[in-house]
Amino acid sequence: xxxxxxxxxxxxRRLALRTxxxxxxxxxxxxxSAFLVSRELWENVSAIVVPIMFIAWFLALVTMVYxxxxxxxxxxxxxxxxxxxxxxxxxxxxxxxxxLGAKN
Length: 104
Prior knowledge:
60% of the residues lie in helices and 0% in strands. By secondary structure, it is an all-alpha fold. It has helices at residues 3-33, 39-69. The longest helix has 31 residues, at 3-33. It contains two helices and no strands. It has one domain.
Protein backbone atom coordinates (compact mmCIF):
# COMPACT_ATOMS: atom_id res chain seq x y z
CA UNK A 1 0.00 0.00 0.00
CA UNK A 2 1.30 3.46 -0.79
CA UNK A 3 1.96 6.20 1.75
CA UNK A 4 -1.17 8.21 0.92
CA UNK A 5 -3.60 5.33 1.37
CA UNK A 6 -1.86 4.34 4.62
CA UNK A 7 -2.36 7.85 6.01
CA UNK A 8 -5.98 7.78 4.87
CA UNK A 9 -6.59 4.43 6.60
CA UNK A 10 -5.06 5.71 9.83
CA UNK A 11 -7.18 8.88 9.61
CA UNK A 12 -10.31 6.72 9.23
CA ARG A 13 -9.29 4.77 12.34
CA ARG A 14 -8.78 7.96 14.36
CA LEU A 15 -12.16 9.27 13.19
CA ALA A 16 -13.86 6.00 14.17
CA LEU A 17 -12.22 6.12 17.60
CA ARG A 18 -13.36 9.70 18.18
CA THR A 19 -16.86 8.84 16.97
CA UNK A 20 -17.02 5.92 19.39
CA UNK A 21 -15.89 8.01 22.35
CA UNK A 22 -18.28 10.85 21.50
CA UNK A 23 -21.26 8.51 21.11
CA UNK A 24 -20.52 6.83 24.46
CA UNK A 25 -20.24 10.27 26.09
CA UNK A 26 -23.60 11.35 24.61
CA UNK A 27 -25.28 8.11 25.65
CA UNK A 28 -24.14 8.28 29.28
CA UNK A 29 -24.69 12.04 29.59
CA UNK A 30 -28.29 11.79 28.40
CA UNK A 31 -28.93 8.63 30.40
CA UNK A 32 -27.46 10.12 33.55
CA SER A 33 -29.39 13.35 33.16
CA ALA A 34 -32.63 11.36 33.06
CA PHE A 35 -32.15 10.65 36.76
CA LEU A 36 -31.63 14.30 37.57
CA VAL A 37 -34.73 15.83 36.00
CA SER A 38 -38.21 15.82 37.40
CA ARG A 39 -40.81 13.33 36.24
CA GLU A 40 -42.88 16.02 34.51
CA LEU A 41 -39.89 17.31 32.55
CA TRP A 42 -38.84 13.77 31.60
CA GLU A 43 -42.30 13.06 30.19
CA ASN A 44 -41.91 16.12 27.94
CA VAL A 45 -38.40 15.41 26.65
CA SER A 46 -38.31 11.61 26.63
CA ALA A 47 -39.68 11.47 23.09
CA ILE A 48 -36.53 13.25 21.93
CA VAL A 49 -33.92 11.93 24.37
CA VAL A 50 -34.65 8.21 24.06
CA PRO A 51 -34.20 8.05 20.26
CA ILE A 52 -30.98 10.08 20.52
CA MET A 53 -29.71 7.66 23.17
CA PHE A 54 -30.59 4.71 20.94
CA ILE A 55 -28.77 6.26 17.97
CA ALA A 56 -25.72 6.98 20.14
CA TRP A 57 -25.74 3.40 21.45
CA PHE A 58 -26.05 1.97 17.94
CA LEU A 59 -23.27 4.24 16.63
CA ALA A 60 -21.01 3.15 19.49
CA LEU A 61 -21.72 -0.50 18.70
CA VAL A 62 -20.98 -0.11 14.98
CA THR A 63 -17.76 1.83 15.52
CA MET A 64 -16.60 -0.66 18.16
CA VAL A 65 -17.04 -3.55 15.73
CA TYR A 66 -15.19 -1.57 13.05
CA UNK A 67 -12.32 -0.68 15.39
CA UNK A 68 -11.95 -4.26 16.53
CA UNK A 69 -12.01 -5.80 13.03
CA UNK A 70 -10.19 -3.17 10.92
CA UNK A 71 -7.14 -4.37 9.02
CA UNK A 72 -3.74 -2.71 9.12
CA UNK A 73 -2.89 -1.15 5.75
CA UNK A 74 0.77 -2.19 6.03
CA UNK A 75 0.73 -5.82 7.21
CA UNK A 76 -2.89 -6.80 6.47
CA UNK A 77 -3.52 -8.26 9.95
CA UNK A 78 -6.20 -7.01 12.31
CA UNK A 79 -5.00 -3.69 13.66
CA UNK A 80 -6.01 -4.25 17.27
CA UNK A 81 -5.20 -7.96 17.63
CA UNK A 82 -1.75 -9.47 18.02
CA UNK A 83 -1.51 -12.53 15.77
CA UNK A 84 1.06 -14.22 18.05
CA UNK A 85 -0.99 -14.05 21.24
CA UNK A 86 -4.51 -13.49 22.46
CA UNK A 87 -3.72 -9.87 23.40
CA UNK A 88 -5.97 -7.23 21.86
CA UNK A 89 -6.53 -3.52 22.40
CA UNK A 90 -9.41 -2.05 20.44
CA UNK A 91 -8.47 1.53 21.34
CA UNK A 92 -4.84 1.43 20.25
CA UNK A 93 -3.37 3.91 17.78
CA UNK A 94 -0.58 1.48 16.88
CA UNK A 95 -0.80 -1.80 14.99
CA UNK A 96 -0.04 -4.61 17.42
CA UNK A 97 1.72 -6.61 14.69
CA UNK A 98 3.92 -4.21 12.67
CA UNK A 99 3.90 -1.11 14.92
CA LEU A 100 2.38 1.14 12.26
CA GLY A 101 1.11 4.07 14.26
CA ALA A 102 -0.75 7.30 13.95
CA LYS A 103 2.57 9.19 13.77
CA ASN A 104 3.77 7.24 10.67
